[in-house]
Amino acid sequence: MTVDFSNWAAAVGAQVDGDAVGIAGFRLEPGNWRAALSGLHDLGHVRLELLAGVDRESHDEVYAVLTDGLGTQVMVCTTAPPEGLASIVPIFPGAQWHEQEAHEMVGIVFRDDQGHEVSNEPLLLRPDHPRFPLRRAAEKASESS
Question: What percent of the chain lies above the pLDDT cut of 70?
Answer without folding.
Answer: 83
